[in-house]
Design a protein that fits this description.
Length: 173
């Protein structure tokens, strides 16, 4: 059964919904077998992971593999679904990143609990650190996401400090 039918909507109505961005809708379609709220959560989560990974305008293979592992664990998805979610999120981020970034984080923030927001921030840093270094631009992007999620700066710093060894801004090279 279609996710849209479970919600009591047809695809035309769903497409017209102002509360859900096109990016989240695209990823959600790939996860059609999941319970609708979980699919929306995973879609937004995967998109924001790709947003952090792509902040430096490239997504390394190690970052992709880390995103897939994280989506499998946090979304409790089989590997195939996690790979699809991450690939669609990466594509959407490349195509629509500038216009969708705030909308997706706003939608995620409106449905996520505080612990889920903190878990996302931790995962964003893990993805950015997957290639061995968190660039200044990746660090700034994660900070921006934290602001959009309305996470207090002290909580952001607490999570960020766990990755201080990978922060390019703190390295002496």
């Amino acid at each position: 059964m279609s996710m849209w039918r479970l919600l009591g909507l047809n695809r035309a109505e769903a497409a017209a919904s102002p509360s859900q961005t096109d990016t989240v809708r695209e990823i959600t379609r790939a996860l059609d077998r999941l319970e609708p709220e979980k699919a929306k959560y995973v879609a937004a989560f995967a998109y924001m992971l790709s947003r952090a990974a792509r902040a430096d305008l490239k997504i390394e293979q190690r970052e992709t593999e880390t995103m897939e592992r994280i989506v499998m664990e946090h979304g409790q998805l089989p590997e195939a679904q996690a790979i699809i979610a991450v690939q669609i999120a990466k594509t959407q981020s490349i195509l629509f990143g500038g216009t969708e970034n705030y909308l997706v984080s706003k939608e995620f923030s409106s449905h996520a609990t505080f612990p889920q927001k903190l878990a996302l921030l931790d995962c964003l840093f893990a993805v950015a650190a997957a290639d061995g270094s968190i660039s200044i631009v990746e660090d700034n992007e994660i900070s921006q996401i934290a602001d959009e999620l309305r996470v207090e700066h002290k909580d952001f710093i607490r999570i960020r400090s766990q990755y201080r060894g990978a922060l390019a801004v703190l390295r002496r090279e």
